[in-house]
Amino acid sequence: GPIPFKDVVVDNVDLVATMPAERSSEDHDDVLVSALPSKPMVGSTQNKLRCYLGFWLPETFVPAAIGLQRRFVPRPDDVIIASLPKCGTTWLNALAFATMARRCYPPAGADHPLLRLSPHQCVPFLDALFAGGGREARLDVLPSPRLMYTHMPHEMLPRAGGCRVVYICREPKDTAVSLWQFRRSMHPELPFLDTFESICSGANTYGPFWDHILGYWRASESWPENVLFLRYEKLLRDPAGNVRKLARFVGVPFSEAEEEAGVVRGIVELCSLGSLRSVEVNRTGYMDGLKFPRKALFRKGVAGDWANHMTPEMARRMDDIVADKLRATGLTF
Ligand code: A3P
């Protein structure tokens, strides 16, 4: 049969490239997308946001939320990377792929897929797969264990199945700045205020951000063996420690021999910002279908960049929202 990861890479190179063309306002079983509340999407003239089950999803991905809930059949050894956009998805995808695929692709190998492909080409994107066209059937033929990623809130994932989810969370002010910078790679004139306001209002892509974060936070508290809650800032401080945690969580802990051979260090280096950024495919060209330059995924990679772009008033306002929404949850920033 197909070899896990070896064949996944081959199968999924074109996933994002084959994003379905605009699909809006269709009837999905009993959900009429065009009847859902809508808002414009900052920085996009083609797509808008629709409020589905309390979350503002890109209209083209509403069918994916419905499809995921109703038709996604998780396997017990599935691993799903989950995040809000700009929280370190690309990095975590790379780390998880390098960790789980290390038997067929040692991190120091000259033929490692991450030296040739974008991390997003190595890990299938559930939201795009379920967005239409029946492409989700591709998931059924993938050998176990499957590694996938999503930006959907926890509420959109099916309850049953017991698969493992790794969530990455990032300080909201830094996430806001990162999102704006990312949008500027397509629209250089875009003012920060539009992105900032939409994030604060909750009506931003996959938002409200606090409900997104809290959904996974609560799930990680209730089912710690199924949901691992990681933080971008902790990953920056201690990448190796977090990679070990990730490996244990997904059931492939590093052996003593691997530790001695420097496998963990190799994975951390292979997936470092400097290393990924220097890969040809990550430096040049555009993310097919999504129209953004691929290098926009690899920008600064630090904590605290918000201070360079926010006034103290803006920072306070966002901190107050976070403090208010996270009160008594045990989660702090
Ligand atoms: P900045 O814009 O603050 O630099 P996502 O992958 O979810 O879109 O998140 C993008 C953010 O992760 C960007 O943040 C990007 O620079 C950062 N990033 C990407 N690869 C990284 C890596 N290997 N290590 C650390 N940060 C990384």
TrEMBL record:
The keyword Cytoplasm does not apply. GO terms for cellular component: cytoplasm. InterPro entries: P-loop_NTPase, Sulfotransferase_dom. It comes from the Eukaryota. GO terms for biological process: sulfation. This is Sulfotransferase. Its EC number is 2.8.2.-. GO terms for molecular function: sulfotransferase activity. SUPFAM superfamilies: P-loop containing nucleoside triphosphate hydrolases.
